[in-house]
Amino acid sequence: MKKRDRTPKTYARITHPLVRDEKGGPLRRATWDEALDRAAEGLRAARGAFGMFSCARATNEMNYVAQKFARVVMGTNNVDSCNRTCHAPSVAGLSAVFGSGGGTSSYGEVDHTDLIVMWGSNARFAHPIFFQHVLRGIRNGARMYAIDPRRTSTAEWAESWLGLNVGTDIPLAHAVGREIIHAGLHNRSFIERATTGFEEYAAEVEPWTLSVAEQVTGVPAEAIRELAHAYARAERAQLCWTLGITEHHNGTDNVRALINLSLLTGHVGRYGSGVQPLRGQNNVQGGGDMGAIPNRLPGFQDILEPDVRRKFETAWDTVIQPHYGLNLTDMFEAMETGGLKAVYCIGENPAQSEADSEQAVERMKRLDCLVVQDIFLTKTAELADVVLPATAAWAETDGTTTNSERRVQRVRKAVEPPGEAREDIDIICDLAGRLGHAWKYADAESVWNELRSVSPDHYGMTYERLAEHQGIQWPCPDPEKLEPTYLHGRLWESDPAKRGRLAPFGIVKHDPPVDLTDDQYPIRLTTGRRLDSYNTGVQSGSFASPLRRGEYVELCPEDAERYGVTVGEEVRISSRRGTVQAPVWVDPGLRPGLAFMTMHFPDEVDTNQLTIEANCPIAGTAEFKASAIRIEKLPAAASRS
Fold this sequence. Notes:
Elements: H1 3-6, E1 18-20, E2 27-29, H2 32-44, E3 50-53, H3 60-73, E4 79-80, H4 88-98, H5 107-110, E5 115-119, H6 123-126, H7 128-139, E6 143-147, E7 160-162, H8 169-182, H9 188-194, E8 195-196, H10 198-205, H11 210-217, H12 221-233, E9 237-241, H13 243-246, H14 251-265, E10 274-277, H15 284-289, E11 296-297, E12 301-302, H16 306-316, H17 328-337, E13 342-346, H18 350-353, H19 357-365, E14 369-374, E15 386-389, E16 399-402, E17 407-411, H20 424-434, H21 444-454, H22 463-469, E18 472-473, H23 496-499, E19 503-504, E20 523-528, E21 553-555, H24 557-563, E22 570-574, E23 579-586, E24 594-598, E25 612-615, E26 622-623, E27 627-633
Parallel strand pairs: 3-4, 3-13, 5-6, 5-9, 6-7, 8-19, 9-10, 13-14, 14-15, 20-24, 21-23
Antiparallel strand pairs: 1-2, 1-15, 11-12, 16-17, 17-18, 20-27, 22-23, 22-27, 25-26
């Protein structure tokens, strides 16, 4: 293909404020005072109908101030981030079982475990740093099982690959659980000591025999049996998942089904044994920890708890609404009905990251006021009424971020931002000042210390200690000591008082994908990431990569032959929501009836025009992993190949 077909769009760095004088008119350069005055005017008019989109790539300190802006300045809990697009089901599932939304183990424990299960995760591409720990674990003798509809590059390292049908994770997990119970391999003492609901769980999984599961999932019965026995017999085991589990209309139920297996075997609350949701953004864990979600205040403290609200109301001199706010999905639906009239969007690009992206754009166009604070003029920024140029969190500002293992680490300013770009926190504070709240923070550390004062899990983490230990995992309530690297060791305590809240089994049922395949749309499309690119490509597209080949629709050899198409040939891909064109790539790791695409090149091929906005009712995450499509061969003149 021609080079221009493989090269993503390069986005311009925003170096000065922009405003739009009228709806539909062009953005023009403005002074900071004009832009902030215009933003404040628009937000002031929308009190009661406002939403905040916070940023999973910015610092903890920025996310703390952003959610505080929503709750104190705008009087709403309508604050969320791209956590909703990916791992909100993980947070919901983990918090329902254990009371907190973080992975239970450290990365280092993977180096020394006995068995690793990678479920719905191509970590070699999507989480390459974590995968180095997986490789160390394998070199140290760990066995790895990969469960994924595709035979991914991660699966190539596995002892066994279980290629299940898309959307059948719960039947497979239930069959594994049933086999463990029937083989007498469940950890009876742990179940009796630390869990509730085992009898109901056992009854729920009983119909899922190995043969029934094979018919539904496509995984051979013997492979299911092998996984069940290996996981249950392992002294230590890590169960890891990513978006292959969460990006479904029943994502939270999927997560609960996997956590059930850890409760069944006692693979949690011990060194080397735990459950690990692998987070993709550098600070998607931290954004939630800082309260940039609609149902929790900083430190993952529940808004519905009166004592929690009282503590924050005292600290912030405000009244916090005693109910959950709208999540990202809810806010987009409220744009359609007029219930949401203004959005302050910091560092997110929902115009291209949301499922059914064309609908998302139309909804944002209905807003009375859209303020975008970012480093690039994204597709979302192009829709804004006011654009505010910010700093790049990883190089142009000080602060902290929190990774998937709950490790808080320092970020230090290395270079000056270009042009008139300013620190995110300073921008938010200037806007708050125009709306009646005179906030002043001397630096990022002063924000962090305010956070420490209201979050017990972070109280022991001073900047000095974070530097000394090269990062500290939460919880860290004591400034004089460190907690174990794993969570929920309390579940192994013999004293009920020390054991605390018991972990409930989740009673969940199989619920197939919403977007059914049929004669008109016979191919199942699943989406994901590649190693060479990052999310919607805004940041990674400006840099060359020898691995990058642009967007393709990947088919198995049998389907490519059936459609009479070859590598590089352009085809039409249609779902019940939209149509795009993309060249073909042939991947022998796919099975007949399954196609794969990414979201990395939306300016070239907008894959999210095809995906369905079928959302998890608990977490609000869309079913990016299971769309029904058809492939059509184009006339020779229409193809660029």
